[in-house]
Design goal:
single chain, 326 residues, Rossmann fold, 2 domains, seven-stranded mixed beta sheet, four-stranded parallel beta sheet, 11 helices, binds adenosine-5'-diphosphate
């Protein structure tokens, strides 16, 4: 696409391990294809304030293994307003940026969609979130690393849980999606997962206790997705104290450590592949799509679909967890 000579790249919203690998891939792939690259700092805030710097290949050297994002990330209220977005557009034009690559979650892609519509700017999104809650891609950048962090932590908690014969509730992130909790539970051999998707269907705690979780075990770990819907791990611990006082219960909230760390091979490869595909999409004159991977193929998902649709939890995984935790 001849009209596009310079692309801007930014990371926005919640950070995720692998964002740096994506920045590297987008930058190198753009340069390889003869495009100029500008790094925009602190998400949309840098676009609004003009915190923008040209990126050469060496600006992204030695970052594939680093967690976090060298471009920094932020949440930007100003970009939520038409005035803020106008400023962003003016800065973009002043910097001769013709198209944007946005690495972020649901909110960041929503912002991209609105900006693209208002100013007719080509925007390409990359799914960067540990929550894996974006429709149209099998996994998101950062999810696999966060899962591995969770299983490392739960393995350690298991040692102390077993020694004291305790019931542990371990709270993981997910922001209203149960992917980290459910797959974290399967991968760590936890006894159950409490996830927002099933909150209205059953009383997940009651089901877990009624299934007789203590029959063959001297410790139990339940992974709880952090969410207003579930109420989080503390809520369930309180319930156990009141409703089943015979159990010795403890809570661990993993919190922000799930966002850090060197990305796994899976996330590095995913980020590299998606980053290169973002530039392919720009060269093919695609706009306003998120790049995803489905069944090991690169796919372009319109922002409207990626944002609006909820990504469903696979029911068979719920059954796997149930069957294997007897
Ligand atoms: P994430 O991308 O991780 O979901 P947020 O939901 O915090 O993170 O969104 C990141 C940023 O995207 C916001 O701070 C804001 O700048 C921008 N954004 C989110 N929603 C909108 C919207 N409806 N309109 C414009 N910008 C938005």
């Amino acid at each position: 696409m001849g009209a596009i000579k310079c692309i801007g790249i930014l990371t926005s919203g919640g950070d995720a391990p692998g964002m740096n690998a994506a920045i590297r891939a987008v930058t190198r792939s753009a340069i390889y294809n003869g495009l100029q690259v500008k790094g925009i700092y602190r998400g949309y805030r840098g676009l609004v304030t003009g915190e923008i710097k040209e990126f050469k290949s060496q600006n992204v050297s030695n970052i594939i293994q680093q967690g976090g994002t060298i471009l920094k990330t932020a949440r930007c209220q100003e970009f939520m307003t038409p005035e803020g977005r106008k400023l962003a557009y003016e800065n973009m034009k002043a910097e001769n940026i013709d198209a944007l690559v946005i690495i972020g979650g649901d909110g960041s892609l929503t912002g991209a969609r609105i900006f693209a519509q208002e100013f007719d700017v080509p925007c390409i999104g990359l799914p960067g979130t540990i929550d894996n809650d974006l429709y149209g891609t099998d996994t998101t950048i950062g999810y696999d690393t966060a899962l591995n962090t969770i299983i490392d932590a739960v393995d350690k908690i298991r040692d102390t849980a077993t020694s004291h014969e305790r019931l542990f509730f371990v709270e993981v992130m997910g922001r209203d999606a149960g992917f980290l909790a459910l797959n974290g539970a399967i991968a760590s051999g936890a006894e159950a997962a409490i996830i927002p998707e099933f909150n209205t269907e059953v009383d997940q705690l009651e089901e877990f206790i009624k299934n007789g979780f203590r029959k063959s075990k001297n410790s139990s770990i339940v992974i709880v997705a952090e969410s207003e819907v579930t109420g989080g791990a503390m809520h369930y611990a309180e319930r156990v104290k009141n409703e089943y006082p015979q159990y010795d219960v403890r809570v661990t909230i993993l919190g922000h450590l799930q966002r850090g760390g060197s990305p796994t091979a899976h996330d590095r490869i995913l980020a590299s592949r998606l980053g290169a595909a973002a530039i392919d999409a720009i060269m093919e004159d695609q706009r306003n799509v998120m790049i995803g991977i489905e069944n090991d193929e690169v796919v372009y998902i319109p922002f409207s679909k990626a944002i609006k649709n909820d990504k469903p939890i696979k029911r068979d995984l719920v059954n796997v967890l149930k069957e294997l935790s007897i």
